[in-house]
Design goal:
The structure is a homotetramer. The first copy, chain A, contains 9 helices and no strands. Chain A is mainly α. The structure holds a DNA duplex.
Chain lengths: 203, 203, 203, 203
DNA sequence: CATGAATGAGGCTTCATTCAT
DNA sequence: TATGAATGAAGCCTCATTCAT
């Protein structure tokens, strides 16, 4: 009961989601500092006071919006890859899903950048805790991949970090060059290079 | 103003450099929006008015500071690699110099991020013109590398873009994980992977 | 803010009037440039932000204040003279009311001067549109006065302009000489001269 | 000797005049507050420091410029009218010369307005002392005019004041209406009305 | 609870004046 | 003496946050 009711007053969680969505969209479009909380309120169709009723501060709202995106990202990647058993296939599927997510939610990229720019200090950053949160999951995958000795690298941490950083750069520069197509379009090429490098294998 | 004597006259170029250096340092430390021009003035040891004597606006100052860093970066990489004749060696040297530069001037990374975050849309962005400016130089290198058919990729543009984006991600995440050492320390590992991929060659 | 309680909510129109009144008073007392918007806010008993909530800019506020005075002036003169039927009596009554208004609202004079001094060139000037707005009304009066051929002048435009300019000078110099009394006190003398000139009629 | 010499360094009095002229022109064009002292220096072709070498402050410079204009005005009117013996002719000639002066030096009008707007307090105003300075001269004329009993008014002070104020209004509104021609063009009409009033003499 | 009017600290920029050269 | 680089006080405006209704 509740969410389908005819009541004008939406349930708190619906309100919250709407504000969150508005915030993500505004922050992505204008940057953290460039956004007046009023704009978020207008976009969400609520009063400014209401925004502050649901979120302590502009900063808290930003973090919540980012967290929301990160959760969606995780869900998306997990939903696509968790059921894939074969490790390399799982890696491939997860990577592809990762890229596809940002094609579908480009605002997430902007939130990444904004967080990096505005809250660079470890203290306030959400990115690091987030990475930590899922580290074990992906390290397990890397250990599996290393299991049969096919990797050139034997340190799961290092492999994970290296690939993460490469992907991160790939994501962030998505809009860098106008002619660049969707991220997923670049996937095969990227994945091929990540697996085999730029040199021919027989070298 | 600092603790020095009242008013100091210096040559315009010296003053400009000092202000530029102060600006780069402040912007890197606190972010574009987080910096009060007064702080830059104090850091440079000049009055606030003096800052505006040399730069039209805070924004202009930021762009000038970034441009300064980009010029240094280019000079550094060129100085290290231009004289290297053998293409692969030149690629290697340039890449290493590129990473080393950011170890020596980590504030440059922050300025990159800040520009991306604050001036994402605008024509004012310096990064893309900068990249364009040097595109030909590096494309030539890629064509040389492709000359003997040792590359898995035959499109100089694509190779250049791919590697640039990977490196960009590598740079940006430098401070991502506390335990990470200098960028140059990670060079061998990164370069190895870029050349040969994460899979063993015999796969 | 003043000594009153923390935050007071008033109807928008009341607040606007209060700010307008404070602005007129401040601008008159210190001149457009000599006024810090903070002073207006303090005088109105509101925060500075509130001033900007009601008026886009200092300039807009000034123009609004002037417009307000002009409206009052028009209402005052019209209220006094519109019901007077006999043309010459109407002219007399209107002129007297005009002078009396400035005795009652001397700040209006200052706003006139300030506008002339600060916004001389611009389209933003309110004075000329204002004059135009009422031109027809007064031209009609002049035509009536000319109807019986008692005027030395036969051009309603010219007569209107000439008298306006004389009155304007009379108003503006009100405070010119300390010993000068109220404008209305000088009315009879002025009006007599305007009607009959400084020379005796038999000359 | 001196002023015709080939020395690059102009004599102090020449410098001063140039600065004064530049100041008058700038103040008239942009208003007292709208002028950066730098602009005056540039216009005069000297360094900013030099301006301050000749004049204590911006305010002092403005007053000096105004004083200069007032002196010229006085000289002009006196030169034209002092030799005229017949009182009414002298009044007529002086008035006409007064108007003609402002046609030739319209910037004087602006300086009048600026002073009125910025330095309205008796203390700093130049206008009142100036008027006082010449009061006696003109009062004498008025007494002469009254000598033969042809004036409707018998108070020289009052007559002087009244006419001054009318003329002042006439001057100040010169640019008020675009279609208005030169002040001197309006002279006959104005003078006729001042002498005989707007009503026909036989009324 | 929801609202949006009210607030004031904070930041960018200007410009009159000073002073080292 | 002449200069113009240097200065910093001052002022306009924004916007995150609070709170009366």
């Amino acid at each position: 009961m509740g969410s389908e009711g005819k009541r004008v007053h939406k349930s708190a969680s619906v309100r919250e989601s709407e504000i969150l969505a508005a915030a993500a969209s505004c922050f992505a479009a204008h940057g953290y500092r460039g956004v007046d909380v009023q704009l978020i309120a207008d976009t969400a169709g609520v009063g400014k006071g209401t925004v502050y009723r649901y979120f302590t501060s502009k900063e808290a709202l930003f973090h919540a919006a980012l967290r929301h995106c990160l959760d969606q990202l995780r869900d998306h990647v997990r939903a696509a890859s968790d059921y894939v058993v074969e490790p390399m296939q799982r890696f491939r599927t997860a990577t592809r899903a990762y890229l596809a997510f940002f094609d579908a939610h480009p605002e997430t990229i902007e939130l990444f950048i904004q967080e990096r720019a505005e809250f660079r200090d470890q203290e306030t950053s959400l990115y690091f805790p987030y990475v930590d949160e899922h580290r074990e999951h992906w390290l397990a995958l890397w250990r599996q991949l290393m299991g049969d000795g096919r990797l050139r690298i034997n340190d799961a941490e290092a492999a994970n970090r290296l690939v993460s950083r490469m992907l991160y750069g790939f994501i962030l520069t998505r809009t860098a060059e106008p002619q660049t197509g969707s991220l997923e379009d670049g996937f095969e090429e990227l994945f091929e290079i990540m697996l085999h490098g730029i040199l021919r294998g027989d070298t």
